[in-house]
User: Fold this.
Amino acid sequence: MSPPIATLRASTTLRASRREISAFAAVGLCAYAADLALFVWLRGPLGWDPLGAKAVAFLAGCTVAYAGNAVGTYRGRAAQVSRLRQYGLFFAVNAAGALVQLLCIAVSHYGLGLTSPRADTLSGAVVGMGLATCLRFWGTRTLVFRSEGKGSSWTG
Assistant:
């Protein structure tokens, strides 16, 4: 006796979701590595100030993530807007993720009074990164690389 069609659809959807999440995570790791490596290089051998180095590294990391998602994770989804506008949306989603991380640190450090370096690291790099990653995944798939008929009404 074969399984019901609904069970087969659910199984196929689950496999596709796992592939999408895995690819998104792999691209994210590459983008993180590019961001970190460039930041360390700009701060160290080139002697840039930390804010300038982080701004350039963040932009490079966003570009690596966009390219990886455009040609990898979401290559099967046709661009409904120009690539430049799509990159702008992608950058905005990533900037919102960075703000989530900063907000987590601010709430923990200033709101809850958890001021140790360990508390700042946990709130920003663990809790904040987790929430920011969820936001980035949602924003990337629904706003930037959305399927026909899905996502927001932003077109251009």
About this structure: DSSP finds four helices and no strands in the chain. The first helix runs from residue 5 to 43. Confidence is low (pLDDT under 50) at residues 150-156. The helical segments are 5-43, 50-73, 83-111, 117-144.
